[in-house]
Amino acid sequence: MKLDALRRYRAQIEEVVRLDLFRLRQELQDAETRSHLLDAQLRLTADAYVEKAGGGVALDEFLVWQSKFAAETSELAGARRVETQLREAWSCKQDEMREVTLDRRRLDRLAERMRQQRQLVQHRVDQMEMDEAAQRTSTL
Prior knowledge:
- By secondary structure, the protein is mainly α.
- It has a single domain (3-139), classed as Helix Hairpins.
- It contains 2 helices and no strands.
- Helix 1 (3-53) packs antiparallel against helix 2.
- The model has no long low-confidence stretch (mean pLDDT 94).
């Protein structure tokens, strides 16, 4: 495979990883927002229960509050699990992005060295041609 084709391929991979990273970041931000909202809702429910319980609560009302707490706690735990999973996926994708970027930079440096080498060879060829032309004119 030619170096330019490989460089284009690596650039495409880098772009795909960059888009995945952006998508994961958006999903993570949404999950964080959801966790914060659910946490705030749970605190509001707890505050409302404490206020209500101050005057006494019947057993059936207590069971309703308990099921509400259980549901909100479960929902918050699920949201936090999703947030943790997305955070780990985002971290892995960042590592992949660093690796892909490093590969592309290596290929760019290699291409630059090859370009400089071709330039140097061309300069030497030009110099040899000029020397040869100068030698021919000086011998005439």
